[in-house]
Amino acid sequence: MKILLLGSGALKIGEAGEFDYSGSQAIKAFRAAGNEVVLINPNIATVQTDPKNFAPAEACADKVYFLPVTPEFVEQVIEKEKPDALALSFGGQTALNCGLRLEESGVLAKHNVRVLGTPVDVIKSTEDREIFKQKLFEIDVKTPRSIAAYSLEEAVAASKQIGFPLIMRAGFALGGKGSGFCESPEKFEGMVKEALAFSPQVLVEEDLRGWKEIEYEVVRDNNDNCITVLNMENFDPLGIHTGESIVISPTMTLSNFEWQLLRTTAIKVIRHLGIIGECNIQYALDPHNPEEYRVIEVNARLSRSSALASKASGYPLAAVAADILLGKDLYEIPNAITKVTTAFFEPALDYVALKIPRWDLQKFRKVSHTIATEMKSVGEVMALGRNFPEVLQKGVRMLGIGSTGILDAPGGFKDKAEVQDNLTTASPRRVFAVAEALYKDYFTAEEVYQMTKIDHWFLGQVERITDLAKQITDSSEPITAETLRKAKVLGFSDDEIARLTGTTFKEVYELRREHGLTPVTNQIDTLAAEFPAQTNYLYTTYLGEKDDV
Fold first, then answer.
1. Is residue 321 part of a domain?
2. Summary count for the chain: helices (H), strands (E)
3. Do 236 and 294 have their domain in common?
4. How confident is the model at residue 139 (pLDDT cuts 50, 70, 90)?
5. Do residues 180 and 166 make contact, with C-beta atoms less than 8 angstroms apart?
6. Within a domain: 536
């Protein structure tokens, strides 16, 4: 079979780069099953478009067209290549929108090209917010109170019914483009005109700011087998695009009732919609009422969150989705880790994964540093660890902005007023402002909550970091082995400890080694107890030579 795979288009902020992972995995799976793959993607800075001698051969398509992912160009490729099938779910919103237009114009029927996986009418039901709302109403699943509009006049009438403040979302858009919060009618008309300039539909929606934002990654095969692979929770409450927010997986603040409610609802929704392959569902959850939730949207495709979930859990979502699109069921797909069991399982993590976005707003003139419902981040990093403080500090260091941890804000804060500004108005510096507020005792955790609506549990975890930092800086005695161990558990780097104690990196490093505090100590102790004959080898190899500082 010849498969035409649509990529995500040219690289731009909030779009395209994150879909290289899913696209390359899909190509690999399609080719492993003996299919020929033709790729349309103008983005040269990706694995999937690299020449075979520069990238793993199995991750490259048989033929690549560096053309815009638009119906006009795709139709020309279809006429030339005569593919049997079209894969839409690995190229983000760009690929989905293109596929919808090809179907509506009759191009796919004309050339006898079938869409793999989720049918086009199902895709449309997830993208058209009015149809989506009606579909979920059929199964008694709650969505935000909303009205779809197709003109300025309709939108203004809808705003009067919903009431201000409200959220205005653009339909068929990626990265929250054209969406935002609106406090007054004066601002609303301008937002609607801007959104309708590139989208045929806007959704006028109730304001749910302050609610928790939760995501579930869901896989469903052709025989209605359905699992939730991973769930994720935003550090910021609803009101910040998930691509702009720190995200932790698995969820930290849900009760078992809430976890099961949202999982059951996710499976119910995906089955009712008829999605085949991989998708994600996003919720708003009332922090004060566990039974109050809203389904914000369902992405009937791989997303930026899917790449995070795959790497965090070890479950290759894109590869599994590709196999499902070829007709396999979950119990027929080998488990990528064990190689013995199947993909029909839900991973259970004994660690946590954290994603932090990276912004480069300083490179642009006249750009607001406020972050909200539209993505401005240019990428993200992922950290793995045993607890939230550890991965938060690791993630901040990996951003490459010069910070040794969350108490080391780039450029620092001038005073309490600047910290308060970054708390009340979300910006790339908000997490640093939270830490600064608690460390300097500018505000209590409750006051920070009132300004940010960041869940008390997350603020409590940041407070663990700031409390230990205060203990270290306030002490007139040299840092003890126990305090040093606590600092490493909470993700403090040797550089950060040196800054807090007024010493040097080398001194902290040598003191830590002297006390036997290395990242692999506990693991090696366990292995040595299990394999006593290998004790010398284990300790010499791992503790004597390999030390991740």
1. yes
2. 21, 16
3. yes
4. very high
5. no
6. no
Handedness of CA 494, 500, 506, 507 (dihedral sign): negative
Distance of alpha carbon 98 from alpha carbon 199, whole angstroms: 13
Kindly provide the b/e burial profile for residues 327-357, where b requires at least 16 CB atoms within 10 angstroms of the residue's own CB: ebbbeebebeeeeeeebbeeeeeeebbbbbb
For 216, phi then psi, to 5°, come to -125, 135
Pairing of strands 36-40, 2-6: parallel
The count of other CB atoms within 10 Å of the CB of residue 547 is 13
Query: Which residue type sits at 520?
Result: V
Report residue 275: phi and psi, to 5°. Answer: -70, 140
The rounded distance, in Å, linking the Cα atoms of 243 and 375 is 6
**d(Cα 49, Cα 301) in Å, to the nearest integer?**
20
CATH number for position 416: 1.10.1030.10
Q: What is the pLDDT of residue 546?
A: 39
CB 84 within 8 A of CB 113: yes
- Does residue 229 share a domain with residue 252? yes
Does the pLDDT at position 543 exceed 80? no
DSSP-derived 3-state class of residue 154: helix
Query: For 494-518, what is each residue's pLDDT tens digit?
Result: 999 999 999 999 999 999 989 888 8
d(CA 38, CA 77): 9
**How much is the pLDDT for 383?**
94
**Cα–Cα distance for residue pair 219/225, rounded to 1 Å:** 8
Please name the residues in contact with 12: beta carbons below 8 A apart, sequence gap of 6 or more.
Answer: none
> Do 365 and 499 lie in a common domain?
yes
> How does pLDDT run across 268-303, given as a tens digit for each residue?
999 999 999 999 999 999 999 988 999 999 999 988
The gap between the terminal CA atoms of the chain, to the nearest Å, is 50
Q: Above 90 in pLDDT, residue 254?
A: yes
- Entry pTM: 0.85
- Last residue of some domain: 206, 241, 275? 206
- Spatial neighbors of 322 by CB under 8 A, at least 6 apart, are 25, 26, 29, 30, 87, 90
**What pLDDT was estimated at residue 520?**
62
Q: Is the pLDDT of residue 534 over 90?
A: no
**Domain range for residue 194?**
145-206
Contact 299, 213 (CB under 8 A): no
Classify residue 5 by burial, with Cβ atoms within 10 Å: 0-12, 13-18, 19+: buried
Residue 425 CA, distance from chain mean position:
22
- Per-residue burial over 72-83, b if 16 or more Cβ lie within 10 Å, else e, is eebbebbeebeb
User: Do residues 207 and 184 make contact, with C-beta atoms less than 8 angstroms apart?
Assistant: no
Q: What would the mean pLDDT of 158-169 be, rounded to a whole number?
A: 88
